[in-house]
Amino acid sequence: MVRSPCCEKVGLKKGPWTPEEDQKLLAHIEKHGYGSWRALPLRAGLQRCGKSCRLRWTNYLRPDIKRGKFSLQEEQTIIQLHALLGNSKLRWAAIATHLDKRTDNEIKNHWNTHLRKRLERMGIDPTTHKPKNGRYNTSKEAAATLSHMAQWESARLEAEARLVRQSNPAADNKPPPLRSTTFSNSSRPRCLDVLRAWQGLVAAADKGSSLESPTSILNFPPPPAATSVIASAHSKVDELIMSCGIVWSPMVPSYEREGESMGGGGISDVVLGAVSKSSGHQNLPPPMLPFAGDDNATCGDVGGSIEGESTSNYWNGLLNSLVDDDDA
DNA sequence: AAAAGACCCAACCGCTATACA
DNA sequence: GTGTATAGCGGTTGGGTCTTT
Asked: Which positions fall inside the HTH myb-type domain (predicted)?
């Protein structure tokens, strides 16, 4: 199939938008709403192609866009999710769902121009989030886990897209959402809170760490208090997944480790795989996170061993580095 | 002060997915 | 089932700005 161009390129303006053009576009959208992008430039009196107008609105003019410096919290979220999603499709869109009022384009730019370089300077491979000198875990299991998690995130996004479509019946005359994967806080589906659940698990693990072991609970059966927290978190994550209507096992291949099938678990099994030996959910390793300060530090071994610093310590250290980097 | 290089980010390109006639 | 329009997405670029020499 030969695709026709989205617009006649001859005579159309390209490059930076002028304030006058922005004003025309804004005025037109205020009056008529957005949509029908192909016809919009003519109606709005703009010498631009529809796609250019759509991108200008989506990435810049939309009133619900936050501009300016990224907060540390936002940067932490980006790095965490980038580690989780790797090169999976839709990763920038997925990350954007966790950052209120930020566009995927802005996040992508911030990653490419700031965060990636900072990680490189810290000796961390920004693609794999592993240390370049091999200080941290480079196991196949960890890499496979990242891929595993990325597959899950892709499946989740597909489910979200379906939900969005189903919740926008044709009877609704409002224009469709600008980006199906962008939600305000109030409209964000529950399943998008998996990151929060994951952070809760990390906190739970760290809490256990402080209770029992100078290194981590993950080497030992957690103390009763930590077990309770973990069990609670485990069911919470399962609940989140169930609320999304995502069927985990049939949608992703089984996880293989040294010839042993590791499949069949829910996402919480993935998350909690190494968190608790006594919880009965240790089928899969958690996402690999590099740990600072210990040449032998590992995270993500099946069977549950995290040595060295806790995960939150890792993130705190990383963020401190980012702050230091900014100050430098 | 001026030139050169580095940095930043808005905007574009090309592709795929989806909706619809 | 097919073709077309539109939307969404990641990768890349170009030019303005900042920093260094």
From this structure: 9-65, 66-119
Dist. CA A194–CA A209, nearest whole Å: 22
Q: Which residues in range 12-51 of chain A are in contact with strand C, contact meaning CB within 7 A of any of its atoms?
A: 15-16, 34-39, 50-51
- Residue A177 CB lies within 7 Å of the nucleic strand C: yes
Residue closest to A148 by CA, chosen among A256, A73, A292, A236: A256
Q: How far apart are CA A288 and CA A273, in angstroms?
A: 11
Residues A185-223 pLDDT 10s: 333 333 334 445 445 544 544 444 333 222 222 222 333
Q: Is the CB of A158 under 7 A from strand B?
A: yes
Chain B: positions less than 7 Å from a protein CB are 7-14, 16, 18-20
Distance between CA A227 and CA A208 in Å, rounded? 8
- Report the distance separating Cα A16 and Cα A29, nearest Å: 19
pLDDT, tens digit, 9 for 90 and up, residues A36-65: 788 888 888 888 888 888 888 888 888 878
Strand B closer than 7 Å to the CB of A15?
yes
